[in-house]
Automatic annotation (TrEMBL):
<dbReference type="GO" id="GO:0005524">
    <property type="term" value="F:ATP binding"/>
</dbReference>
<keyword id="KW-0067">ATP-binding</keyword>
<feature type="domain" description="ABC transporter">
    <location>
        <begin position="3"/>
        <end position="234"/>
    </location>
</feature>
<keyword id="KW-0472">Membrane</keyword>
<protein>
    <submittedName>
        <fullName>Sugar ABC transporter ATPase</fullName>
    </submittedName>
</protein>
<keyword id="KW-0547">Nucleotide-binding</keyword>
<keyword id="KW-0813">Transport</keyword>
<dbReference type="Pfam" id="PF00005">
    <property type="entry name" value="ABC_tran"/>
</dbReference>
<keyword id="KW-1003">Cell membrane</keyword>
<dbReference type="InterPro" id="IPR017871">
    <property type="entry name" value="ABC_transporter-like_CS"/>
</dbReference>
<dbReference type="GO" id="GO:0016887">
    <property type="term" value="F:ATP hydrolysis activity"/>
</dbReference>
<dbReference type="GO" id="GO:0055052">
    <property type="term" value="C:ATP-binding cassette (ABC) transporter complex, substrate-binding subunit-containing"/>
</dbReference>
<dbReference type="InterPro" id="IPR003439">
    <property type="entry name" value="ABC_transporter-like_ATP-bd"/>
</dbReference>
<dbReference type="InterPro" id="IPR027417">
    <property type="entry name" value="P-loop_NTPase"/>
</dbReference>
<dbReference type="GO" id="GO:0015408">
    <property type="term" value="F:ABC-type ferric iron transporter activity"/>
</dbReference>
<dbReference type="InterPro" id="IPR003593">
    <property type="entry name" value="AAA+_ATPase"/>
</dbReference>
<dbReference type="InterPro" id="IPR015853">
    <property type="entry name" value="ABC_transpr_FbpC"/>
</dbReference>
Length: 353
């Protein structure tokens, strides 16, 4: 089901707007993540989609139908929360079949459907157990199967993996992606974990401060961030940021003067500082020194000191640490300039590379 927001504003107290003028379309059959820091408005947005909350103003459409005034039941969404809240006294199969029982689906039919869903989420060998006998990951699989029981218009997941340990989170996020692909159900997944969002989403909506900071593919978020907030929120290690002034001389004649004049902050991804001349991929040559190097397993980082600033590079592991000045190169890809409002004014899609 396609979901469209038109000028949706949400205020809990009638004074401050928690969400302001949200406009977006989530295409049918896709998996979209709502990503952002805590308090950014992710849960509020999800609850406006589900119908658990009513928008203060604006319109919400499912397909071409205006559902703004419809409640959660009428919107036929399936929901999974961080606390899976399975019924402890019911078996796994009865938990999955429960929404069908409420809908008065005949017993044989609902047991058949529940068994199919148990197989889909890979708990078909657990159906006679009670939830308390399952691991956290298995319980979350059951919760997803239960949410899918009535073939919902949308599957909505609010931080469903937060209670799981790190390894299980990775396994379960792949499972959510697989289940979404196999069922084709339009899925909206809330997370504050960029890594989670980047790995499973077709598109990511970055929400902060009641606004959509950017709504695009994981690649575009990384390679062409709209603003400094997105540039810093997406990517590990975190993007280097230095005052643009520091690079004025090095970039004069390379980047148009009127852009350089407006540039407040330069953003440099750690892989954009390289020790060799990569030809056309290079924006400019700089001179500095490697002051500190670290290596953990396959990850190597070096601190490069340039013009009094320290920039982290992940590409300089072969270069010895010492104070001597050496040439290094700044690549076009992964280099951005932002104005004083934080808007990107150079790099990414703006200047195809
Ligand atoms: N029921 C509520 N009443 C009043 N304010 C709320 C309520 N729920 C959330 N908020 C406020 O709305 C903002 C966004 O919250 P939320 O949507 O839960 O963010 P997120 O899920 O991104 O952490 C926060 O400032 C939060 O305090
Ligand atoms: Mg939340």
């Amino acid at each position: 089901m396609k979901v469209t927001f038109k000028d949706v504003t949400m205020s809990y107290d009638g004074k401050t707007d928690t969400l302001r003028d949200l406009n977006f379309t989530i295409p049918d059959g896709t998996l979209v993540s709502l990503l952002g820091p805590s308090g950014g408005g992710k849960t509020t947005t999800l609850n406006l989609i589900s119908g658990l909350l009513t928008a203060t103003s604006g319109q919400i459409f499912f397909g071409d139908e205006d559902v703004t005034k419809k409640d959660a039941l009428a919107r036929k969404v399936g929901m999974v929360f961080q606390n899976y809240a399975l019924y402890p006294h019911l078996t796994v199969l009865d938990n999955i079949a429960f929404p069908l029982k409420m809908a008065k689906v005949p017993k044989a039919e609902r047991r058949k459907r529940a068994a199919e869903l148990a197989a889909l989420v890979h708990v078909d060998d657990q159906v006679d157990k009670k939830p308390g006998e399952l691991s956290g990951g298995q319980q979350q699989r059951v919760a997803i199967a239960r949410a899918l029981a009535k073939s919902p218009s949308l599957l909505l997941l609010d931080e469903p993996l937060s209670n799981l340990d790190a390894r299980l989170r990775i396994e379960m996020r792949e499972e959510i992606r697989r289940i979404q692909r196999e069922t084709g159900v339009t899925t909206i997944f809330v997370t504050h974990d960029q890594d989670e969002a980047l790995h499973i989403s077709d598109n990511i909506m970055v929400l902060s401060d009641g606004h959509i900071q950017q709504f695009s593919s994981p690649t575009d978020l990384y390679e062409s961030p709209n603003n400094l907030f997105v540039a810093k929120f997406i990517g590990t290690p975190i993007i280097n940021t230095i005052p643009a002034d520091v690079l004025q001389d090095a970039l004069a004649g390379i980047i148009p003067g009127e852009i350089l004049e407006r540039a407040e902050t330069a953003g440099i991804r750690s892989e954009a500082i390289i020790p060799y001349d990569a030809g056309d991929a290079v924006l400019t040559k700089l001179s500095g020194s490697v002051t500190h190097s670290q290596k953990f397993g396959r990850e190597a980082t070096s601190d490069v000191t340039y013009n009094g600033q320290t920039i982290l590079s992940t590409e300089m592991s072969g270069v010895p640490e010492d104070q001597a000045q050496l040439d290094f190169y700044l690549t076009k890809k992964g280099f951005f300039l932002f104005d004083d409002a934080g808007t990107m004014i150079y790099g990414g899609d703006l200047h195809a590379q």
